[in-house]
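Researcher: For the record, we're logging two predictions in this thread. I'll number them. Prediction 1 follows.
Model: Prediction 1, sequence and structure:
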Amino acid sequence: MREVDAFPASTIKAEDLELKDAILTIAGVEMSEIGQGADKEIKPFVSFRGTTKKLVLNKTNFSRIVHVTGQPDTDNWAGHQISLYKDMTDFQGKLVPCVRVRIDGVATTPPGPPHPSESTDNTPSIEDIPF
């Protein structure tokens, strides 16, 4: 058993997105504590339909979700789809993996029920992501 299997994370990590994007539907946003001791902060956490893992938001991803949804208020994000992908960022002088919100290629309005004549596509979904 690997450590990640014995102690699964409650947040989405870059390692969860090794091979492909995850297209997820936002269920809601709540403020929650992250970190320990003097490093403890309160940050927005995005929850998604179909998974218990959440995305901890930084300013970059917050701005990207506003761009994708067209909604500056997190109260209006539920039902919108976003696409997450693995990227790299500078952190304390080192290049490290991170999770980013893709600003193109996903629905900008909450999806409705599919029309019976529409064919399904092969876009990866939450079921395809190993978390």
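Researcher: Logged. Prediction 2.
Model: Prediction 2, sequence and structure:
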Amino acid sequence: MKKSLIASCLCNGVKFKTNGKLRNVSNCHCIQCRKTHGTFGAYTNIREKDIKFQSKKTLRWYNSSKNAKRGFCNKCGASIFFKFKPADDISIAAGLFNGKTGLKTMRNIFVGTKSDFYKINDKLPKFKRFAN
């Protein structure tokens, strides 16, 4: 779905516009997403070149593994991006978008490592690990 959407962190230190094809949302239940978000992470994905920053003065990166990094706001603490190294695309935390997105949740990934305090009650496809 090609969308032009505005997204920002809580303090607006990181604010950007997307202008490209956004993938529908994946709910990720891996340990890193749970530690980053406090529960599972909900991410869409886009080509990195289709993001235009209006502000990124508080954007910082954390190398969460040898294969990936996570972007966050160093002022309000918002989790913003997940990016495999190297890759042309980038995942965006879906809750950062202002207003309606038209996106749909399409799957649950890393369900083999989800926490025990919640159940996945939807009928979406479930993958033990990553799904392309």
